[in-house]
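--- STAGE predict ---
source: upstream dedup step, 1 unique chain passed
mode: sequence only
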Amino acid sequence: MAKKILIADDEPNIVVSLEFLMKQKGYDVKTVGNGEDALRSIAEFAPDLVLLDVMMPRLSGYEVCQKMRENPAWAGIRIVMLSAKGRDIEVSKGSQYLLAVKDSRVTAIVHVSTGATGNTPVGKFHVYGKVPGLNSHGMYYSLFFTGAFAIHGYASVPPYPASHGCVRTPMWSAPGFYDRWAVGTTVYIFA
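--- STAGE serialize ---
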């Protein structure tokens, strides 16, 4: 029996290409264009692998991934996250993690902690300023993306929203992110 692959992506050109390549290799393929349909299809189609777009309507790829990992029946399903963006930072407030994307590939996944009161802004931003080292507020290698909000290293990064609104990363990751991302880098923050 052929292995099953679910392609969940709302970009038709990407879907057609991936579907063609997977079928050519002998896989049983199903495609969907949004997160809600992805979850329904996972339950019905029982794929071995899900190719999951990060940015989809109804539910984001992050939300689908989180729901998949919460369901013990789906623990064996492999997930590959897809991003059509080139070089950017993607933060999921719901799952409390950050994806570093370079050349449309996820290069790092880091646990983060966002705003405890839900005040970490959601949307598309750009890094407008960088401050190296440790400041008087305990922020380490800060990348400011809107107002006084930043992605920065911090001594404590609990598995739940705890900051005043910034995106806290572990101290060890902050210098690398600081060096990797220039002013102008796109930051996407999802609920």
